[in-house]
Amino acid sequence: MTQMAYKYRIYPNAEQREFFAKCFGCVRFFYNRSLDEKIKYYQENKKSIRITPAKYKEEFLFLKEVDSLALANAQLDQEQAYKNFFRKQNMFPKFKSKKNDQSYTTNNQGGNIKFSDNNRYITLPKCKRIRIKKHRDFNGIIKSVTVSMTCDGKYYVSLLVNVDEIKSFGETNKAVGIDLGLKDFAVDSNGNKYKNPKYLSKSLEKLAKEQRKLSHMKKGSNNRNKQRIKVAKLHHKISNQRNDFCHKLSNKLIKENQLIAIENLKVKNMEQDKHLARSIIDASWSKFVSMLEYKSKWYGRKLIKIDTYFPSSQTCSVCGFQNKELKDLSIRKWTCPNCGSKHDRDANAAKNILNEAIKKAGTQPDSLLILESKDSLSKKPPLQSDLA
């Protein structure tokens, strides 16, 4: 059984929006207050403490007005964030801000989350029927739902569903190596180039103009709030464009290839370069690789990551000669001094990545169907809100 998430737009009325605002606020209140108390307790006693929503409900009666499971899930999220910090050295849990996107999660108990009127409405705990745009169907049992509101005032529900079977694309004996870049988003081992759309760069001038208008407006005014929503919509559009591009390209690669090889880039380290940080963030490499990871597991494909320091760009894919002069990134085409083969820098790198993946798997191209990827099988893929 596999868990998948399906995201849909909802259109709550004024009463439902007020209820959601209470849920968002109570979840944020409990999370921040308990986090602050945990920090202070640890500083004084050098021990951790477990805090449940029940501790605050007698003092703060408004917590009883919202879905209790929303508060319980906020507690679980906070405890998981603590575990991730201590076990994996992740970032310490942050306080929630009402300036960011708001959300809360509740669970399906006894069928209290359901669709009605030919899937035109959805019913949630403690909330009447809400109009929904169910643009795609699913077969499975709803486990939980996350209600969210973006900064531009749009509402969504993300349904976590237990799916018995995912329709397979069918096996193939094709394999591909992928070299990610900035000029071209990706170049594969077959020589295909996928242009970098640079959505942020294309919208930067318009975004800067709208943000300047926002900065000049009086705080707390209606005009400032309208302009804030306008800026948020523009950011949301850029995010949607990136997601759409990454989904379509990852789907294409997963559908056509049994084995996908890619370089394990240290994106966070690369973002420290102040000259390239914006371009790297705009490229969304991490999002794209994440999609390849969970989709490869869903559809029975194999994803192999090659070590970051593997000299894929400097090595001739024909004879294996390593040309150290290619550390100069301005060299885009070169001829191997050993065998005379002519190479495009990125296409050659993609071929080397694929060859190294086959070597790492300990097999040959004609037996790709039995390849196993430690990277893709050892980690549970993250659940995504929607598939393109």
Helices and strands, with pairings:
Blueprint: E1 2-11, H1 14-45, H2 54-57, H3 68-88, E2 102-107, E3 114-116, E4 121-124, E5 127-133, E6 141-149, E7 155-163, E8 175-180, E9 184-188, E10 193-195, H4 199-215, H5 222-256, E11 259-263, H6 267-270, H7 277-283, H8 285-298, E12 302-306, E13 333-335, E14 342-344, H9 345-361, H10 374-378
Parallel strand pairs: 8-11, 11-12
Antiparallel strand pairs: 1-5, 1-7, 2-6, 3-4, 4-5, 6-7, 8-9, 9-10, 13-14
Helix pairs in contact: 1-3, 4-5, 5-8
Number of helices: 10
Radius of gyration: 25 Å
- Helix content percent band: 40-55%
End-to-end separation: 22 Å
Helix and strand composition category? alpha+beta
Q: What proportion strand?
A: 15-25%
Low-confidence stretches: 363-388
Bulk shape: globular
Counted beta strands: 14
Biggest sheet: strand arrangement: 2-6-7-1-5-4-3
Report the major sheet. 7 strands, antiparallel
List the helices and strands in order: EHHHEEEEEEEEEHHEHHHEEEHH
Mean pLDDT: 88
Description:
By secondary structure, the chain is of the alpha+beta class. It is built from 10 helices and 14 strands. It has a 7-stranded antiparallel beta sheet with strand order 2-6-7-1-5-4-3. Strand 4 (121-124) and strand 5 (127-133) form a beta hairpin. Helix 4 runs antiparallel to helix 5 (222-256) and helix 5 (222-256) packs across helix 8 (285-298). The longest helix is centred in the middle third of the chain and has 35 residues, at 222-256. Residues 363-388 have low confidence and may be disordered.
